[in-house]
Amino acid sequence: MSLLTDEIKALVGRSWPAVVYEVERTGIRAWARAVGYVDPVFYDESVARARGYPGLPAPPGYLGVPRFRPGEPEPGPPIRGLHPDLQRSVNGGTEVEYRAMVFADDELVASPVIVDVKEREGSLGQMLIFTRKVRFSRQSELVATLTATVINY
Q: Pfam families of this UniProt entry (predicted)?
């Protein structure tokens, strides 16, 4: 029996409301530290400015944190609960294609879309593999496109 219901197939191409991501100095420093970047450009604004940047540059892979709004639903698309028989999910990979640098104090507008869904059989049973793209823009300038794969099993 296929897990690809009409409702799940209908998610492909669907847009979700845009979400604002805030790029903060503390987040830049925490991300840089967590992934092992030791270049002072990610920690010290005077070093960043001396290298010609307007402020702290965001390290590769860091695009900020979604702005939290109490009472509003989680920013979509959802990654779990899309099929009642699949209650677990795991990251199947993330790629970021940059068009411009991101800096502290940027507010990026993220526009997510599910672009593909596939059904596969794995060692744990049937699974659905969702691919979504998120376009990150700063004042209508595209700065990055994130492609994420989420596996529901």
A: FAS1_DH_region
